[in-house]
TrEMBL record:
Signal peptide per UniProt: none
SUPFAM superfamilies membership: P-loop containing nucleoside triphosphate hydrolases, post-AAA+ oligomerization domain-like
Biased composition (Low complexity): 271-285
DNA polymerase III gamma subunit domain ranges (all copies): 126-251
Domain DNA polymerase III tau subunit, chain residue ranges per copy: 314-435
Protein name as it appears in the record: DNA polymerase III subunit gamma/tau
Keywords for this protein: Nucleotidyltransferase, Transferase
Length: 447
């Protein structure tokens, strides 16, 4: 749209009426407005609200030689507020202006309006504390305490901080937003330390957390915070949604990061490992059992990573144990399908031969990824060979058989339930075919 020749309010109203409808065959509607400064005041005011809060499917590209009329970057808003307040001889703190600029969300008009409110609220001296109180923004001290508590897995301190925020009626939505912003700054401090400006009040804390957390941790916590913020409206209340988000940060940890902090899950894993070692020690003193019994007993415990691949057969590991081993591998996507739908047909030294019924699953990329996962899990390098043919003993086949057994058991249990029998007898009730769903088994070691 050429704003120089379509500068009236009628043309702009027509454009905005069309903008509200989602595109038919694309993700976005993109409006390019050239010479946008040529729009009349009424036309620009008509589109101003849409520019500040556009629909998710609309993108505006504005070309102008008059940047005073369009949404501005926060750094420009801060510079302009500094100039205005200096000329008005009003005291201010730079961090307070940054908060006002972020709250204005690109609108200089809103920034000036918020600044007027801050002057009245703070009785002339625009301080960071006053602006935070006016906006309901989170004190930086709470963020540093939260991250320190998460770093030490101090759940009691995390809950105490959440209670303090609730007692002060601070916004949990803004708390997650500020936490995401700080994690973003920490992530960049790890990659580009010069990105942390010394004039930032939180610069020292950002650098400290950049060395305290691994890059994988920061990325994980950032994702948890942003997802938790988007799900806050789905929670029973904001307090529950906020605290559950923090609990995720305490519960999850990148698996491949060195120096992992102790967590509840890690403690349980350690206990399970000790129990597994005790079980293996007791089994070592007993005679070797038959292959099916050995395979069944080995399912809860992973293969010892110190076991050389060429000695698996000596320990009784056979082709029949492949489904139980596959179930414990951390696989996903096509690699998981390859493992679940393949059958181990031979073990020859350090070479495993798999038979696959679907040739597309046996492509080199999937096979290499599966070989890497097996090597990491077993602790020894190995070679993986695939063949195309009919399969019988796969993890997918066994899972399907177990699902059928669970379904039959659930249907039989309901049919024999006295309460269900009474309902059918007294009220002529019937069981809707296909409505019975078996309860999925729970792995106690994961609780």
């Amino acid at each position: 749209m050429d704003a120089a020749s379509n500068r009236g309010v009628d043309e702009m109203a027509s454009l905005l009426e069309r903008a509200v409808y989602a595109p038919v065959n694309a993700r976005f509607k993109v409006y390019m407005i050239d010479e946008v400064h040529m729009l009349t005041n009424h036309a620009f005011n008509a589109m101003l609200k849409t520019l500040e809060e556009p629909p998710s499917h609309v993108k505006f590209i504005l070309a102008t030689t008059d940047p005073q009329k369009i949404p501005m970057p926060a750094v420009h808003i801060v510079a302009h507020l500094q100039k205005v307040l200096t000329e008005e001889k009003l005291g201010f703190e730079l961090q307070a202006l940054r908060l006002l600029a972020r709250a204005a969300d690109g609108s200089m008009r809103d920034a000036l309006s918020l600044t007027d409110q801050a002057i009245a609220y703070a009785a002339g001296q625009i301080s960071e504390e006053a602006v935070r109180g006016m906006l309901g923004a989170l004190d930086q001290h709470y963020l540093t305490r939260l991250l320190d508590a998460i770093a030490t897995s101090d759940g009691a301190e995390v809950l105490a901080i959440a209670d303090e925020l609730a007692a002060r009626s601070l916004s949990f939505l803004l708390a997650l937003q500020d936490l995401s912003t700080m994690l973003h700054q920490i992530a960049w401090a790890q990659v580009a330390p010069q990105s942390v400006l010394d004039e930032l009040p939180e610069a020292e804390d950002i650098r400290r957390f950049a060395s305290l957390f691994s890059p994988e941790q920061v990325q994980l916590y950032y994702q948890i915070a942003t997802i938790g913020r988007s799900e806050l409206g789905l929670a029973p209340d904001e307090y529950a949604g906020f605290t559950m988000t923090l609990l995720r940060m305490l519960a999850f940890y990148p698996a491949n990061t060195a120096g992992a902090r102790p967590t509840i899950a890690a403690s349980q894993a350690s206990q399970a490992s000790q129990a597994s070692q005790a079980s293996q020690a007791s089994q070592a003193s007993r005679p070797v059992e038959s292959v099916p019994e050995l395979a069944q007993a080995a399912m809860p415990n992973p293969v010892d990573v110190s076991t050389p691949i060429d000695s698996l057969m000596a320990l009784g590991f056979t082709e029949h144990d492949w489904p139980s081993l596959v179930a414990r591998l951390p696989l996903r996507g096509l690699v998981k399908e390859l493992a679940y739908r393949s059958e181990l047909v031979r073990i020859e030294g350090a070479t495993l031969t798999l038979k696959v019924s679907v040739a597309q699953l046996a492509e080199r990329l999937q096979v290499e990824k599966l070989r890497t996962a097996l090597t990491e899990y077993l602790g020894k390098p190995l070679k993986l060979v695939t063949e195309i043919g009919a399969v019988t003993q796969t993890a997918a086949v066994l899972d399907a058989a177990q699902n059928v057994q669970r379904q039959q058991a659930a249907e039989q249990a309901l049919a024999q339930d006295p309460f269900a029998q009474a309902l059918m007898r007294d009220f002529d009730a019937t069981i809707v075919p296909g409505s019975i769903k078996p309860v999925q088994p729970t792995n106690i070691s994961n609780i």
